[in-house]
Structures are given as structure tokens and as C-alpha cells.
Specification:
Layout (H helix, E strand, L loop, with lengths): L1 E5 L3 H12 L3 E6 L11 E4 L1 H9 L3 H7 L1 E3 L1 E6 L4 E6 L10 E5 H14 L3 E4 L11 E4 L6 H6 L7 E12 L8 E7 L2 E7 L5 E8 L11 H7 L4 H8 L1 E12 L11 E3 L12 H18 L3 H30 L3 H17 L1 H9 L21
Parallel strand pairs: 1-2, 1-9, 2-8, 5-11, 9-15
Antiparallel strand pairs: 3-7, 4-7, 5-6, 10-13, 10-14, 11-12, 12-13
Helix pairs in contact: 1-4, 1-8, 2-8, 6-7, 8-9
Amino acid sequence: MQIVVVGGGVAGAASAIALRRIGAEVTVYEAYEDPAGPVGSFLSLAANALRGVDALGCLAEIQRAGFAVARQRMWAGNGKLLGDVARGRRAEDPLHSVTLWRADLVRILRAAAERAGARIITGHRLTEIPVADLVVGADGIWSATRRTLDPAAPEPAYAGLYTVSGVSYDLKMEPGAFNMIFARRGAFIYLPAPDGTVWWSAQIAAPQQPDLAAIGLADLAALFGTEKQAVSVLRAARDVSGATLNHVLAPVATRHDDRTVLIGDAAHPVGAGQGAAMAIEDAVALAQQLDHAATIPAALGSFDEIRRARTDKMVKSASANRDAKTAGPIAARVRNLVMPLFFSRFYEKATGWLYDYDLGTLPAPTRPVSPTDVPI
């Protein structure tokens, strides 16, 4: 089976590993020379994502590349603790969430795909899809494959939020916790790392798209001026290392035909810290269905049926998460009253469906082929 994967980020690299496991000949086309993205962008992998990378054979390397985060703490802007729960898992689950640079995650997955025998071609933007038994659209929220599959497919829209990230120094904070402050202008996240630095991400509500290049540390400190802890972290930063606009996408009705399928953000951008996780889950599930089904169309149909309910539920959860970060003054006061009760009594039950998910395994690795032996 010859498979072309469009996009070499998390979704594309993960799918290349999984598809090589079932013996497919895989060629990945990536438009950028370096699909890893800005160094200053980091992400967290919850228990469900870690079980997915375990199925791909990459868990230990990813754990070494990042650091474990055992707890998640939610704070009101005035410093009131709203909740303290296990981060991205049930309390008894020993598989702790891992935070790492996005660039490192992509690097590890791409290297594993190449070791498995996938051919990865970077700096090559496809103008037409090569002939193949299957085309996997893993080309993100701005997917060209989605538009080819369905010219009437929805287009991304600005979500009213933008994100700016960076690293702070010399704060002497104890590592092991993901902290989120619900601020007046959005949310401020900070994670003390084992090396003494503090990784932070400011998610700012803004009705109009800002000029990201013009936003500096002084601007951020002013935006979070009423949240003392956020200002303290920002004052210890040296520069801004990453800035992005957040986008949403209306539900994608057509996610596959008989020889093309969308995965990851091309099919269902979710946000809420689960974008990479859903892409990794997609990659494993797609390979499993192709391995089990009698035909490719049958495999794509069963894959879509399996994944659609879960990803649709995740999109709804992400929308509620986003609304909490952009709440007005009255809604924020209600949130600060209700959240302590919710986190102490209902949080684990409410998120169990997400973190308990286990895709199962893939076939043992096939004998790697030389990339030069894989037809284009």
C-alpha cells in the first residue's frame, strides 16, 4: 500500500510511524523546511496522548525531552486558589503529563518515522496530490487537502484570542505544577521547569486581530496589570519567544472519501491543550483500521465513525474552555464561586472520558526499508 501524507508536523509524523507499522510505503510532504515551529512554543501531553505515543514507540524519548507535571492549579486573578487536581490524568494514574517544546516533539516523531522507513520531503509544497493508494491530509487548520476534498469546506476564523509565550528566569519556583490564572483580559499560564526557568503562555482576549510583531513584554505586563503573579513572571522574562493567533473552525462535514482522509487539525482543531493528543490518537486509529479492514474505503469509514464522536465532544469541551478565558466581570465572579466546588467534587469524573482513553497497540515494527526504496 502506497500512502502519501501531506504535512510533516505532529499529525503527519505520527501517522507516518503508525502507517509504517502496518507495512505501508509512506512518503511525507512538508511545505516548510522546518515544520517543528518556533522554539518558544511549548505544549503538554496528557495521559491519553502519552498512551498514544507509547503505541508509536516514542514514550520514553518524549518523557526525556520534557518534564513531568503532576498537578494542575487554577487561580483567580486576585490570587485565590480555585482548584488543585492531577494534571491531565486521574489522581491514581502514574502516567504524569509531560510538557515539552513543540519543536522537540516534532523532531522526535520525525526521526522515529525516518527510522521506520518513511520518506520525509521538506520544503516542498504540493501543487497536486501524487498518485497513491491513500492520501492523508495532516496539513493543519489551514489544510489545502481539506479544500481539495471539499471546496465548500469551512475556513478558519479568528477566535477572539491570541497567545504569546516565553521563558522567565531566577524566580525560584518549585516545579511540578501547571498554573492557570483566570485574568481580566484572558488567561495566564506558567509552569516552573526543573532547570529553574518558568515557561509561560499568555492567552489574551481581543475582539480584533492584533499585530503580533508589535507586542512586547511591557504590553503584556500592562494587560495583566491587575494579576500580580502574572506580572511577576513577565518581569523576569527577557523577551517574547512565540506569538500566534487562535482560530476556530466550523464542523467539517466531509472528512474523507474513498482515497483521501483528514486527520488532526485539518479535520477537527480542538485546542484546550489537546490538539497534539487528538492528532496522535488519529494516527494510531487510522493505521489500526487500515490494518483490519478489507478495503481502504471501509477502513476510512470505520475510522471516521470511531473518531468523530470523540473529537466532536472534545471540540465542545474546548469551546467551554475558551469561553471561561473570555468571561465578562459578572460571569467571572460566578466562575470564581463555582469552580472550587466543581474541581473538588466533579472534575475527575467530568474528564475521565478524555484521559482514560486507550487506543490499544499497533503491530510490531516492520523491517525498516531504505527511504530511497520508497516510490514517490
